[in-house]
Amino acid sequence: MKTVILLLFFLLSNSKALFTVEMSPNYLAELHENVTMECRFPPGDGKAVLSVFWERLSPPPRVEVYKMVDGRKDVDSQDPQFRGRVQLQDDELTKGRALLQISDVKINDSGTYQCLVEMGAGDYKQTTLTVQASYRNITATALQGCSLSPTPLLLQCQAAGFPKARVQWTDTSSSVLPASRTNTSHTMTQDGLYIVTAQVKVNGSCGEIYNCSYITKHSVTSAFIHLSAPSFPKISTLSVILMLGGALLGMALCVSLGLIFKKRGFGRLQGRKQIYVRRRAFFEHRR
């Protein structure tokens, strides 16, 4: 009898050891996008009832993300932060995959998550979810106009993202500018994003290119500042043609008027000359 009990204990212990859960240790998601975290387990023969528990362990407090007990979804104790944003893909459970999808991820969704699967035996694994907001839209400007000769200029870059980025400046030759010439400040938005403003003092001239790079653990985003002379308004080809046509028409009109006035003046002179000749002939005849 003692031997039978030991054998049963060994078989039960061995079956539990064979039921293991596997999971990727890290997941990276972009703000406002969707992320799917996968918990893999032996699918079994379909006879045992399945329970799946997803929790976020940190940052504290520990909260429930999703719970399925004996094959039934239970949302009564689900944390309000995740309500309406998480779902478990039921059709994948029979394949041994507990896929948890979080939609429209927030910055505060970041943390350590635990997946516990029970199907006769049970096991769990933990993973870390990191939500980032890339510094995509960088506003890069030169705060003063450049000239052909080197002059002191102040350049500025500004962008919003998460986590807080450090900003590195490089010049036309890709040389990193010293930190003593830079100044970086930041503020936070209501969404938890950092607005990072970086400035650098350079001795630059028109034609040079400077680069600002926003660097975090998972991404690097850059923008260029091309020092160029102030641009003048562009004139279209049609405008040029109209302007030239107007100028030529004006010149032709002036020439025509000049010829008309000249002709009239010459006619008047000829008339006066004829009158003078007639008068002179009349007086000579009377003599």
UniProtKB/TrEMBL annotation:
Transmembrane segments: 238-261
Gene Ontology CC terms: external side of plasma membrane
Subcellular location: Cell membrane
Phylogenetic classification of the source organism: Eukaryota, Metazoa, Chordata, Craniata, Vertebrata
SMART domains named in the record: IG (SM00409), IGv (SM00406)
Entry protein name: Programmed cell death 1 ligand 1-like
Signal sequence bounds: 1-17
Primary localization class, coarse: membrane
Coiled-coil parts of chain: none
Domain Ig-like: 33-130
Bilayer topology term: Single-pass type I membrane protein
Source species of the chain: Paramormyrops kingsleyae
InterPro entries per UniProt: BTN3A2-like_Ig-C, Ig-like_dom, Ig-like_dom_sf, Ig-like_fold, Ig_sub, Ig_V-set, T-cell_Activation_Regulation
Key words, A-Z: Cell membrane, Disulfide bond, Glycoprotein, Immunoglobulin domain, Membrane, Receptor, Signal, Transmembrane, Transmembrane helix
